[in-house]
């Protein structure tokens, strides 16, 4: 039994390491989102770090319109990045879960 527990602990540590590696890799996965009229484009990582924002000069003339565009486009980009992030981390965690009796609901 003690050997099984040590084996499970080793498997959990290995999975934790893989999750951390996945998080680092997600820093290089870029997500682009563009407004419907292409006046605003944002790029962020799958870890939801903003990398760039491109703004059409026309939007710079209307502060309120620019705010609206930023809110809509950033929220869409964050939603996309979150879905990628969660799917990747869930797959990594699921792959490395040890076989613990009664915990098969996660598989």
UniProtKB/TrEMBL annotation:
Keywords: Coiled coil, Cytoplasm, DNA-binding. One of its GO terms (molecular function) is DNA binding. The keyword Cytoplasm applies. Its main location: cytoplasm. Residues 5-32 form a coiled coil. The keyword DNA-binding applies. GO terms for cellular component: bacterial nucleoid; cytosol. It comes from the Bacteria. Signal peptide: none annotated. InterPro entries: YbaB-like_sf, YbaB/EbfC. It is found in: Cytoplasm, Nucleoid. Gene3D superfamilies: Nucleoid-associated protein YbaB-like domain. Binds to DNA and alters its conformation. May be involved in regulation of gene expression, nucleoid organization and DNA protection. NCBIfam families: DNA_YbaB_EbfC. Homodimer. Belongs to the YbaB/EbfC family. This is Nucleoid-associated protein EM932_15035.
């Amino acid at each position: 039994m003690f050997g099984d527990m040590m084996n499970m602990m080793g498997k959990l540590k290995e999975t934790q390491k893989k999750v951390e590696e996945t998080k680092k890799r997600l820093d290089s996965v870029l997500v682009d989102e563009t407004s419907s009229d292409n006046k605003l484009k944002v790029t962020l990582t799958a870890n939801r770090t903003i990398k760039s924002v491109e703004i059409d000069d026309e939007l710079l003339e209307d502060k309120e319109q620019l705010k609206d565009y930023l809110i809509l486009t950033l929220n869409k980009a964050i939603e996309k990045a979150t879905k990628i992030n969660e799917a990747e981390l869930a797959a990594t965690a699921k792959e490395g879960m040890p076989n613990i009796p009664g915990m098969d609901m996660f598989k």
